Amino acid sequence: MPKDHALRRPVVDGTTAYPWSVRHRHGGRPGDGEPCREVRTLYQGGSATRFVFRAGEGRYVADGHWYSGRVTDGRGNLLDLHEPGVVRALADEARRRGLLPVTGEADGWELFEAVAVSRAAATTPGVPPGCPPGP
User: Fold this and answer.
1) What are the helix (H) ranges across the chain?
2) With 60 as the cut, is the pLDDT of residue 11 above it?
3) Which residue from 9, 81, 102, 112 has the fewest beta carbons nearer than 10 Å?
4) Cα three-residue angle 114-120-123, rounded to 5 degrees
5) Residue 1: how many other CB atoms lie within 10 Å
6) Interacting residues of 48 by C-beta distance below 8 A, sequence separation 6+
7) For position 46, what pLDDT does the model report?
């Protein structure tokens, strides 16, 4: 199993695209009230775009109760930020919104629903693109 902090280099159509990493971060200093967060970083052409998933109401991140890199809305939608298909869907959605390649930080939760729908459709044969998950 790869190390959590290793930079991964996916290959798309024979070209390395958006090397990435996942980190779990705790609040700043003890008692500062900063929530845990999962950070997915995509790199390209000298840019590093960090998609931050902060824990909060209806937003859950791995905090020692399950594996690092998992984020969920508590309504049955879960993304594993280590999964290459999730990374690709996140990159595709970020590109559509003009967030890549940009150096800086973006709220990963803003992309969460679109990525969850994309992944659900990709793993369910015969479902038209953009179709929401569920019956």
Assistant:
1) 84-96, 109-122
2) no
3) 9
4) 140
5) 4
6) 41, 42, 103
7) 82
Q: Is 70 a domain residue? A: yes
Residue 21 contacts by C-beta under 8 Å, 6 or more apart in sequence?
5, 6, 7, 8, 40, 41
What sections of 69-133 are H helices per DSSP?
Answer: 84-96, 109-122
Over residues 62-116, the pLDDT tens digits come to 876 677 889 999 898 999 999 988 988 998 899 899 888 788 999 999 999 999 9
Residues 6+ apart with CB under 8 A from 44: 17, 18, 19, 100, 101
pTM beyond cutoff 0.70: yes
- Closest among 122, 118, 109 to 35, alpha carbons compared: 109
Alpha carbon distance 132, 12 (integer Å): 26
- Has residue 117 been placed in a domain? yes
Q: How many domains is the chain built from?
A: 1
Report d(CA 39, CA 28) in Å as an integer: 14
